[in-house]
Design a protein that fits this description.
Layout: E1 6-17, E2 31-42, H1 54-61, E3 67-68, H2 78-90, E4 96-104, E5 107-114
Length: 118
């Protein structure tokens, strides 16, 4: 019998950004969001009985909190933020992970990675 284990974490961060778009948009001007970030981490238990320590997830996500995202990402869209968070989680050895970044209550970007899909 195959058991798939996962942990879930959700947290809120506040950050500013401006996008460089090839069309006129209010997003071309500096503005901010209260982002909701959700993380699903899948994998085997380590020697401590964890898939990943929640403090590691928080460390990865909260590096964006109260920051100008343009200092971190070339084009700080929700899609790119989710991808960057996912890349940092993968470096921690997860077998599978999903990240969802809510820009507001109605809009999110999501990325997923599964090492078996490579």
């Amino acid at each position: 019998m195959m058991i798939e284990r996962h942990v879930y974490w959700r947290g809120e961060i506040s950050a500013a950004h401006r996008l460089e778009l090839d069309y006129e948009s209010k997003c071309n001007r500096l503005h901010g969001h209260n982002y909701m970030v959700e993380v699903w981490a899948y994998g085997d238990l380590d020697k401590n009985g964890m898939i990943i320590d929640f403090s590691v997830i928080k460390e990865i996500v909260f590096r964006y909190d109260h920051r100008d995202l343009n200092d971190i990402l070339d084009q700080p869209t929700a899609e790119n933020m989710a991808g960057d968070i996912l890349r940092n989680l993968i470096e921690k050895g997860l077998g599978k992970a999903r990240v969802r970044v809510w820009e507001d209550k109605d809009s999110y970007a999501e990325v997923e990675w599964n090492h078996e899909d490579r």
